[in-house]
Design brief:
Layout lengths: L5 H8 L8 E2 L13 E2 L17 H13 L4 H27 L9 E3 L7 E4 L17 H24 L4 H19 L4 H13 L7 E6 L2 E6 L35
Parallel strand pairs: 1-4
Antiparallel strand pairs: 2-3, 3-4, 5-6
Helix pairs in contact: 2-3, 3-4, 3-5, 4-6, 5-6
């Protein structure tokens, strides 16, 4: 398939850095720019069912922990997971509502900058489901489920849990929170289409039950049923706007991040 028209990519990137996706300049060019490595290396598990301690994911967790000033790797791992989930949802949902297609990130490459979201590059602009006999029979929500949840977030969650002890429920809450955050950005660009699509994704497994979404003339609000653990960064960290807590819990309160 031919690369995406440059105007489409510019329209996506104009929404914000989390929405940007680069691709090859021509159909004959499959060489990534300098500094990129295969995206699957972020999730790659080895014989012991864990990511390499010197691999990109484990290394990034330690960087995040250092920047947050926390000794708790699970806090840093959760915050990193939340940011990566936002990156994948932004590309997927943004392209779905603005361009009418869900890009597959299978075969994509990544570059991890010092600051900000990871850079994503793909040799082909290949819509999710284009290899199936009848891609038109699948909805955008189904394509997003396959491209983002199955293709990215499920292997990411398994890899993150091999680095730090985090519950599956917490990571699903992170994924739902990142999806709702993507919607808040798209509310200024294509609110009706984005709200319908995100509501459908939050109503179906595995995100069903992770929180409550409310939309209206004053914007979008989401309240999750788990906590990303950001409050544990320090006394002044507070809680996130969509947290299940209204104030940071004391150390005597039971954990609510899930089993």
């Amino acid at each position: 398939m031919n690369p995406a028209p440059a105007a489409d990519l510019r329209r996506l990137a104009a929404v914000g850095p989390y929405f940007a996706l680069d691709t090859a300049a021509s159909a004959d060019d499959d060489t990534p720019p300098p500094g990129y490595r295969p995206l699957h290396e972020l999730y790659e598990l080895y014989g012991d069912g864990r990511v390499r301690p010197d691999g990109p994911l484990a290394a990034r967790v330690h960087v995040v922990a250092q920047r947050l000033g926390t000794a708790e790797l699970r806090v840093a791992a959760s915050i990193l997971h939340l940011g990566l989930a936002a990156r994948f949802w932004s590309v997927g949902v943004g392209a779905a509502v603005l361009l009418g297609a869900v890009p597959s990130l299978e075969g994509a490459w990544m570059r991890i900058p010092d600051q900000g979201p990871i850079d994503l590059w793909t040799p082909r602009w290949t819509p999710q489901g284009s290899a199936t006999p009848s891609p038109a029979t699948t909805t955008l929500a189904e394509q997003l489920h396959d491209a983002v949840i199955v293709g990215q977030l499920e292997p990411l969650a398994e890899a993150v849990r091999s680095v730090a002890p985090l519950s599956a429920r917490l990571l699903l809450g992170n994924s739902a929170s990142a999806l709702a955050g993507t919607l808040r950005v798209l509310d200024g660009h294509a609110p009706d289409a984005a709200r319908t699509l995100v509501a459908e994704l939050l109503d179906r497994p595995p995100l069903a039950g992770t929180g409550t979404l409310r939309t209206g003339p004053h914007g979008t609000a989401f309240r999750r049923r788990s906590c990303c653990l950001y409050y544990r960064v320090g006394p002044g960290a507070g809680v996130c706007g969509d947290c299940c807590f209204t104030r940071p819990p004391s150390s005597r309160r039971p954990r609510t991040d899930g089993p």
